[in-house]
Amino acid sequence: MTSASPHKKSKALKPGSRRPAKELCSECGFCDTHYIHYVKEACAFLNQQVAELEEEAHGRSRNLDNSDDWYFGVNQDMMAARKKEPIEGAQWTGIVSTIACEMLNSGKVEGVVCVQNSEEDRFQPMPVIARTPEEVLAARVNKPTLSPNLSVLEQVEQSGMKRLLVIGVGCQIQALRAVEKKLGLEKLYVLGTPCVDNVTREGLQKFLETTSKSPETVVHYEFMQDFRVHFKHEDGSIEKVPFFGLNTKELKDIFAPSCMSCFDYVNSLADLVVGYMGAPLSYQWMVVRNDTGQEMLELVEDQLETQPVTSQGDRHKAVQQSIPAYEKGVTLPMWAARLMGVVIERIGPKGLEYARFSIDSHFTRNYLYVKRNYPEKLEAHVPEYAKQIVGQYELPE
After folding, report:
1. Which helix (H) or strand (E) holds 311?
2. Of 95, 70, 76, 79, whose CA–CA distance to 279 is shortest?
3. Per-residue pLDDT tens for 244-272?
């Protein structure tokens, strides 16, 4: 018998009242709870307030005279890391799951908000409050679809928990931070992952069927630093598809409008962030934003192999060329895409420069999306650091 509490929709809300952000809603689950009353303040797509919330969470906001702050947010340490003994079945080596388990084992928290999958569908997210390491491990592997993580906030309140770890992505964490003081907690820990280009479950199916040779056997996938999408299949094999061979015309409309309007790729408001994009292949990129993040890291440091972050190459030309290519939906023949991938892997941006490449590519795309579809929101919605990044490039009208 499990003690994890699965997501349940609030019954108190009227149909049609749950999505104040309308088509920009990221389905974070906040509006499935009575906290919907704070949505105009809390929602990242109704009230962009990263700088103010950074000040509250980290003691300062980004220094706009420091380009590393533009890109990576407030931080006191970065490293590349992997577990010495990986967790079987984890998407990477299991750093996120290990931190969550140790937080429970040490008694620092009473529960962990994480995302398992439904019994019917390995990619259908099911947010839970995990109370045991076993329940945390049942949530390992990313679910690359919109996920209502915050739908369990009422259950947290009803449980009487006072110490909680929440694992989530940027839009979820901004809403969480906005109501943090209203949750009645003694201590909140936030473990974040970078996030970009989520899709609905239907959009995910289209991506898998368009891109993978065996969509029905894909266990997980990621857009990797070698400019390829890595699909892991049920038999353990890894299928690699070059970015430049993706069917852009077919796929450019599958991404959620919220993701096309997001400028928080690096999860600015988490205490500790674990992702892949600033690290070499086989390592994870870890960003410690504050002392709470350092506290979480110290719980697992002896289980990690670490190395300093590095940066190599120059992303600017590649980003500038990618802007019109995306606009036109350019797709190379697979042989040319593979060749270009090999060349760019050898001479292209690596480490933190790859992370900057990815951020630049998405921020320029998203800036154009907001400008064209929500021009009235552009000035207030795009954070100052994102304007600095986008301002490096020539954009079409």
Report:
1. strand 311-312
2. 79
3. 888 888 888 899 999 999 999 999 999 99
